[in-house]
């Protein structure tokens, strides 16, 4: 199927709405998408097309879970889904656990975008200029009464960004990032955004895929997992080229069994982003199977020049503990695009595991010169100091990473490791819990909790968390 027109539209649509990561991702994918002219082009990475065979390292088990959609009230939604395929993009899973009526995708505005009047277009143009200048409060105020879906999304999204920043600033001003549960403090464990409910109310009843995406973000932040999944799936059914929505769904769903039951509700399995998503969550869930290896090989063969797919391949090698191959892949990708910061944190984790201090130092210095304000770069520097056993310096850089990106789960987990090395079990426990709140699939955080409670001579708690870690890994 010819996807390039849809990708070009997605680059424009996402960019106009300020979804720069999604726009960048699709633009890069469009650049490497096979055409008659580049189909036979030799890639700089062609020697690394095949994924490592399962026999090269000890296979790891798959993650486990209850397979249910849990809400914050503790109730378990019914997930009694039909084993047959009802046809992707025609049904939605409701938070109650039952199927809704078939969806008329044409009614969701995905064929032709609703045109703007000249007055609406002028207002939106001004709002976009303010958004680019990071004046999010002004954007929200300017677009507060607009009815056009694109302008309404930008206004509500800007209000969300501004309210999240304000909530985080208030939270940070009350206590430094380094926590100590031994001290009494009324500060909540995480920033509290009191505007989420009001913003969510303004998204009700909309069938616009981008407003549904925003609705999923809000519901996730309000810990309404089932409802967030529903909104994200509805958005993807209507608009499958929003990579940020796929990433959001990836973050929400922490159970591989749930993903399997969601397959019929996602865009067709033949769609490139559906394939990338499913392979990615399988790798993160450590569900290493021969079928996964074949699927990944097939995806790499289809898109041999995609650095994102090459990264999945490197993650696969890392997950089966073939560190040499994974490092070889990351090194090759860096030679192709030396200024690409995406996934540099994983690259540094491999160097840390292999105790390559000189290479890690070089990586940190290079990316500090590229962009020292990216949270991944702070994590790389933290890894460097951790490898040198300079734990206090490592903590400072992990703290900087979470200041730049408060939901950076890996940085919270690594911060916990450093507190553990410093014998500060209470601070380690708090950091690990923050990491788990963000990503329940991170077995390292669960294992770290076990070690922290073991250090506190609480063996029953330690055993519980070690078991949780083992179940994931």
Question: What structural keywords apply?
Answer:
473 residues, mainly alpha
Could you explain the architecture of this structure?
The protein has a domain of 180 residues: Tetratricopeptide repeat domain (Serine Threonine Protein Phosphatase 5, Tetratricopeptide repeat, Alpha Horseshoe). Helix content is 60%, strand content 0%. It is mainly alpha-helical. α7 packs antiparallel against α8. The longest helix has 26 residues.
Briefly note the CATH topology name of the domain at 88-267. Answer: Serine Threonine Protein Phosphatase 5, Tetratricopeptide repeat
What coarse outline follows from CA principal-axis ratios? globular
First-last Cα distance: 37 Å
**How many runs of DSSP E, i.e. beta strands?**
0
- Please report which band the strand proportion falls in: under 5%, 5-15%, 15-25%, 25-35%, 35-45% or over 45%: under 5%
Q: How many individual helices? A: 22
The CATH homologous superfamily of the domain at 88-267 is termed Tetratricopeptide repeat domain
CATH architecture of the domain at 88-267: Alpha Horseshoe
Radius of gyration: 23 Å
The helix-and-strand class reads mainly alpha
Order of helices and strands: HHHHHHHHHHHHHHHHHHHHHH
Binned, the helix content reads: 55-70%
Largest sheet: none
CATH class of the domain at 88-267, named Mainly Alpha
Uncertain parts:
41-45, 54-110, 177-186
**What average pLDDT do the residues reach?**
82
């Amino acid at each position: 199927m010819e996807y390039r027109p849809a990708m070009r539209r997605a680059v424009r649509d996402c960019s106009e709405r300020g979804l720069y990561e999604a726009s960048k991702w699709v633009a890069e994918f469009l650049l490497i998408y096979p055409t008659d002219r580049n189909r036979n082009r030799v890639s700089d990475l062609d020697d690394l097309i095949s994924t490592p065979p399962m026999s090269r390292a000890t296979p790891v088990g798959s993650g486990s879970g209850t397979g249910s959609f849990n809400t914050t009230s503790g109730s378990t939604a019914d997930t009694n889904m039909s084993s047959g395929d009802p046809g992707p993009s025609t049904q939605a899973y409701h938070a109650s656990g039952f199927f809704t009526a078939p969806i008329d995708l044409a009614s969701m505005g995905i064929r032709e975008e609703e045109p703007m009047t000249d007055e609406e277009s002028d207002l939106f143009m001004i709002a976009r200029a303010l958004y680019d200048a990071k004046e999010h409060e002004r954007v929200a105020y300017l677009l507060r009464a607009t009815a056009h879906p694109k302008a309404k999304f930008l206004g509500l999204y800007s209000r969300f960004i501004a309210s999240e920043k304000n909530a985080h600033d208030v939270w940070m001003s009350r206590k430094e990032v380094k926590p100590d549960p031994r001290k009494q403090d009324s500060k909540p464990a995480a920033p509290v955004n009191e505007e989420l409910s009001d913003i969510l109310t303004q998204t009700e009843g909309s069938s616009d895929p981008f407003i549904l995406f925003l609705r999923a973000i809000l519901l996730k932040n309000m810990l309404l997992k089932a409802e967030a999944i529903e909104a994200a799936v509805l958005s993807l059914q209507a608009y499958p080229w929003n990579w940020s929505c796929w990433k959001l769904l990836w973050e929400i769903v922490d159970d591989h069994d749930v993903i399997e039951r969601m397959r019929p509700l996602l865009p067709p399995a033949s769609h490139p982003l559906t394939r990338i998503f499913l392979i990615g969550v399988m790798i993160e869930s450590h569900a290493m199977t021969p079928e996964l290896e074949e699927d990944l090989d097939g995806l790499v063969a289809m898109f041999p020049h995609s650095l994102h797919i090459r990264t999945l391949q490197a993650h696969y090698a890392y997950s089966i503990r073939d560190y040499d191959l994974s490092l070889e892949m990351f090194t090759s990708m860096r030679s192709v695009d030396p200024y690409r910061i995406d996934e540099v944190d994983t690259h540094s984790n491999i160097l840390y595991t292999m105790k390559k201090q000189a290479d890690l130092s070089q990586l940190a210095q290079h990316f500090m010169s590229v962009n020292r304000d990216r949270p991944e770069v702070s994590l790389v520097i933290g890894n460097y100091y951790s490898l040198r056993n300079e734990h206090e310096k490592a903590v400072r850089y992990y703290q900087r990473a979470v200041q730049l990106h408060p939901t950076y789960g890996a940085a919270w987990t690594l911060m916990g490791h450093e507190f553990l090395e410093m014998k500060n079990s209470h601070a380690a426990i708090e950091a690990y819990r923050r990491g788990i709140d963000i990503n329940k699939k991170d077995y390292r955080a669960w294992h770290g909790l076990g070690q922290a409670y073991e250090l506190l001579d609480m063996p029953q708690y330690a055993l519980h968390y070690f078991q949780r870690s083992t179940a994931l890994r």
